[in-house]
Queue: 4 jobs
Job 1
Amino acid sequence: MKITKLSILLLFISNLLLAQNKSDITQFNKSLNQFHNVRDFSISKDGKEVYFTIQSPNQEISQLAYIKKESNKWSEPELLSFCDSYMYLEPFLSFDNNRLFFASDRPLNDSISSKKDFDIWYVDRNKENNKWSKPKNIGKPVNSELDQFYPSVSKNNNLYFTMVSPLGIGKDDIYFCKWEGDKYSNPILLSENINSAGYEFNAFISEKEDFLIFSKYKEKDGQGSGDLYISKKDEKGKWKMATNLGIPVNTKYMEYCPFYDETNQILYFTSKRNNLKSRSFNTISDLKKHINDSNNGLSKIYMTPLQIE
């Protein structure tokens, strides 16, 4: 029992060091509250472009959008030009900002009208005109007849993603594909220090591949729903046992879709946290603003300072 209590104490102290005060956790951009569900986040290295997903209340519709910082203000959201009637979600910018990865159920070519399982796709652009290419399927061995989600790429182009496979450890698992200069290796299932018999998903990989932030669902040491966890590599390059990021980043509500800005040490993540409380209202617009702008249980993007050592 002494060892168990000591482990819990160390975890609690670690969580205190990692997490911030509740007041440090804010909505990324309240102008996005015009949408029912906003999730996923990727920001460019210069901090002037943000890509995210807009979804209908029950997720029948899922589209990629972006905003740009102009005169130190964020522009109005716009849809990415290649989005159509299929599902698009989980954008991730490459280190040079010129490749955008995402997940989609779009068919492999335009001559087919029926959607397929979810694959990882990407679009490219050059620095001269900043126009994205047509979507390109990343192909085998990354994609398969199974579903692949949430691509995240390190500085050396190694790819981490979620896959639902009967050969995995649990329900959803996190996999890794090494970039071999002109192609990706076969998917490698990450160890049980990351994956479990439950759900592991939405993994963000750091630029140097020295830490991984991801979601676990309803773990024993969690807050009650989806929680964000972090794992670091040891001196031999092996992933250590993942630890919960703790309160107040995690709540009894769903936290998922992490993105970490290493330059500015800011954690962005999606949450369905809810602290909505009633009060007296003067007008309908006052009521509407209060409901929309509060942490109201809808999927929103949050941000908080977070130092990872």
Job 2
Amino acid sequence: MIVPSAPGGTLDALGRLMAQGMAADLGRNVVVENVSGAGSLVGMQRLVRSTPDGHVIGFGNLGSLAANVAVTKELGFDPRQDLTPISIVANVPMVIAASTQSGVRDLKTLLSRIRERGEGVTFGTPGTGTTGHLAPAYLLSLTGLRATLVPYRGAGPAMSDLAAGTVDAVIDQTVTMIPAHQGRTAVALAVTGSQRIPQLPEVPTFAEAGVPGFDMVIWNAIAGPKGIPQPAVQRLVQAVEAALASPAVTSRFADLATTAPPPEERGPEALRQRIATDVDRWIRVVREAGITPQ
């Protein structure tokens, strides 16, 4: 399983969890390989070029499997054409968090600081084209503000620098942010979604915090290179379903405010449609936000 990010972030954590669950059903080890660089681009290009025999799969999300088209000039592949969709496996809210050294304890204060200091305020991101890059860019466009986005080779390194106070803020999924907030290495300011999450009951939604237009819940999914034979696809789908039904996965998902989509939103065709829809959506969002592809 190729995970196109460094260890320690959401993709890595969820990918390893699904790999363990799938291995139990497949009766063989599923080896996770972190292939980071250029956001998710290096890992995704590696996946696309892999032999389509069902033995190499990738774990990606909204950014690496769809929105990257909108923000990357030379992607080198088209996720609508060059992948074999397997299934969406997890929907995850996002959280904005500030460095504990920043003195920021709520979203209003952070936005006021950005108004005062502009590009002197920094957001760590997992790299260009990732959800952690799209999220602050989208938030800044909604609020009409400017700050500096600092790319890393994954969410893990970005969170390490947030804990050290090297960057001021990060927006990432709950899988990364809940442990950081509970471990006091970051201060969660707001969460996406229509309601607060039980794991962070004191953290308001973005709407409650004054930015009702910002709402990103991130889907995470498994896909392979184009051309995997249908029997192999179905076997992988079976393993995904077995993993999602396992107590270890369901329990960990609950701990991290992560939900598996309903059955009708899983499987190859559902993922194929989601990729196509979100490519179109993010091309429009990026254009309207004035974000320049890199």
Job 3
Amino acid sequence: MVNLTYNKNRPLPSAEELPSSDETPVDNQLQNDLPNLLLNLLALIWSGRDDWYFGVDMAVYYNPDESAFVPDGFLAVGVNHDTGERGRLSYILWGEKYILPILFLEVISEKYNSEYEEKFLNYQSLGILYYVIYNPFSGRRGRFKKRQRLEVYKLISGKYQLLESENNRVWLPEIGLALGYEKGEHIAWYREWLYWYDQSGNRYLTAEERAMNAEAIAAQERLAKQEAEAIAAQERLAKQEAEAIAAQERLAKQEAEAIAAQESLAKQEAEQKAIRLAERLRLLGINHDEM
């Protein structure tokens, strides 16, 4: 069981003096890939913050006289993200102002490591607020196939209580994020992954997805620009055609007016000729009607 009692006034070991892991190799690729995906997402979501740390397969020391816990992943809030060029070798509680991680994550692997039993009780005794168990074998095989795919426990009155999920997501108010799962592609691997979500249930995208979306948006903007330019060109052409038609109509009107003017002039000339002829005949004493 967890022993939180020790003499805090004596010299306490540093990270360099303690093992940084339990030296137990993972037996499932997901034990590394799932926590690292959550870490990478947090680096995007909280890019402007320096008060959090997400460890992957790192030792968490709560007592200098006890062995460390090494969850597959853990989140601590209220600690410096940047601890210098070397970074953390392990998470030592007395070196982190006694700030406990707020969340522990365990991924059920090929070899069962008492995630539902011993670790459950240890993390509960340690006081980890959220304990998350992801079981990729749920509904398929193994002794825990009837367990839920994702179980999120919250420490309430010193005991872990299983939280209800909605659409495969669980809201964690103290963190300000929801944790859930769905299928997607990550590191060229299409399968079910753990993701962070906002309170409305919108999934936070990975860097690759953001880049793809940005490229898709850029492509749409280029297409929209091309379509706008094509429409503008069509409008210019239509305007030119309308101006050409108007010019033709003006020319036709001018030609019609010229023809009408010529006909009017010809009529006037004919009338004048008739008048002159009638005057000559009158002078000659010839009646025009007699001709």
Job 4
Amino acid sequence: MRLFAAERFVLGVVATLFLVDAALIAVKGIRVDYVGYFICSLAGAGVFLLGQFYRKSGRDLRIAAALISGGLFILFTLVASVFNYMFLPVAFPTIDHVLFRVDAAFGYSWAGIVLWAATHPWVGTILFMVYATSLPQLLVVVITLGFTGKERMLHHFLVTGVLGACASIVFWIFFPTFGPSAYVQVPQWVSQTIPLAVGNTYGQELVRLTTEGVVYLSPKDVLGLIGFPSFHIFMAAMSVWFVPRHWVVMAVILPINLLMPLAVLVQGGHHLSDVFGGLVAFVIVCAGSARLLNWLSSRERAGDAASSPARIVAAE
């Protein structure tokens, strides 16, 4: 298997989370949709192995980089989403009451902004579509960086996403939040007027999970649990920061992500603090992942240099 340092790091994180997930599922006695997870895992593993084929054969190293990163991205998303569920019911008090006070200080009301969007149905519908683009955007960035040969930036992107998700989950374990939709009711006519990605039904399920935990896991039913920091905002920042500076791509990515904060508030059922938290988390993690990537790369170069004399001696 031919992997660069960043790819080995991400694969190691995936393997570690998989083992932790399996152990906690067994200890907690959680039932699992094994067929559903197997199919999803097969898709990720298949993309990853296809990338390995391209790299080993030398047919196209750019395609190889895109496929390997794409496969790792899919596999990490699976194990990380399961890992997040392993800490239900929550063991620590939620901090939503603090974030509600911050909202009030800024004059922000989730119910108010949702009602505003519902009175302008075209706005609510556009924001729903924008909100749904987060994960597809990341896959587009992976493919674009890979196919344009920007390998270093692709690895930085991959490590940033992995560290950001892990950091958000760890923060949420100790300071859980579920957002206003879990506590504030909006009129029923709202969901009949505009599509809502996160509404009262979604919020009620989050409240149930908070107290009862999870008894059955399926990739079809996994919800986004983390309120603060908003990982949708983190992903939007990733897309804008890492996307190649080609005018065609930027003309699509920039307008979508300029609308993302509003989409996160209306469609994601978030506090105002969640948006700023997502941006701050991205700045910190992106800088940290660059340092980690430099360290991993230097270790890889040192290992290659150390093995070169050995290969020369062997050849002689």
